[in-house]
Amino acid sequence: MTISRARSPRSKLLLWLLPILLLALAAINAPALHLLGSDPMRLFPAENRHSRGRPKVAAVFLSGDMGFNFGMGAHIAEAMAARGIPVVGISSPVVFARHRTRAEADAVVEGAIRFALARTGAEKILLMGQSYGADIVATVAPDLPPDLRSRILAIDLTVPAQTVYFRADPSTLAYLGRPDARPMEALRALRWAPVVCVYGREERDSLCPTLTGAAARIVGLPGNHHLNHDRARVEATTLAALRAVAPEAGV
User: Fold this and answer.
1) pLDDT (0 to 100) of residue 1
2) Is residue 27 part of a domain?
3) Considering the domain boundaries, does residue 80 fall inside one?
4) Cβ within 8 Å of residue 177, ≥6 positions away
């Protein structure tokens, strides 16, 4: 005779929690496991556009912590490429899969700029970042060496945060501890290139409103950090802001 034994409430709770725990572990370790890509760089070739009378311009774009396969980063980069601007994309979850030092973060951005200049033959660079990538750009840009500062046409930040961590974590759990950087003060003092900062008006920890009164061009859009997932609005806003601060880029 078989005796069936009902599962205890504790066992049921464990069975319910197990998939959630596994998903959380996968999310936390997604960058290290290359679940969000394995290539540190992605190139977005420019479509041929008439460029007579303006400098040859390229863009360096740091993605969010979900990489270029998710979110709006790839769409913004593609919109730039469609307007004749070649884009060197840096996949943040690959490059920042482990915790980096400030010196390593600086080297990532500086190396990407030098690569873009050499690869495309550009005279000027649009330095751009979205979400986590915007955090890194906001932190590193104010301390770029003089030879690179002279090559930056504009700095574009989409939904940057006030606090910055040098390890990408799409689960956001790694963003709960002590931050590695707070870029507000240095970015407010930046005067050698125009800065564009796009954010969601419902965001609570956005860097953009803290730049009010500085030289930055601040644009608030409907929604929170995800900007209502309105790809068309974000692309149009980014392009319009860049046209305003750097018309010579021809976007």
Assistant:
1) 47
2) no
3) yes
4) 165
Domain count along the chain:
1
Q: Are strands 87-90 and 152-158 parallel, antiparallel or unpaired?
A: unpaired
pLDDT digits (tens, 9 = 90+) for 133-188: 999 999 999 999 999 999 999 999 999 999 999 999 998 888 888 999 999 999 99
Kind of pairing between the strands at 87-90 and 41-44: antiparallel
- Cα 139 to Cα 85, 132, 247, distances in angstroms: 24, 11, 25
Query: Kindly report the CA angle at 175 between 182 and 88, in degrees rounded to 5?
Result: 75
Query: How much is the pTM?
Result: 0.84
Tokens of 80: 């730039």
Segments forming the whole domain that contains residue 203 = 39-249
User: CB of 121 within 8 A of CB of 55?
Assistant: no
Nearest to 156 by CA among 57, 62, 23, 29: 62
Q: What is the pLDDT of residue 37?
A: 58
212: domain CATH number? 3.40.50.1820
23, part of any domain: no
**Domain contains 21:** no
Q: Which residues of the chain have pLDDT under 50?
A: 1, 3-4, 21-28, 33, 36
Strands of 87-90's sheet in order across: 41-44, 87-90, 57-62, 124-130, 152-158, 195-200, 217-221
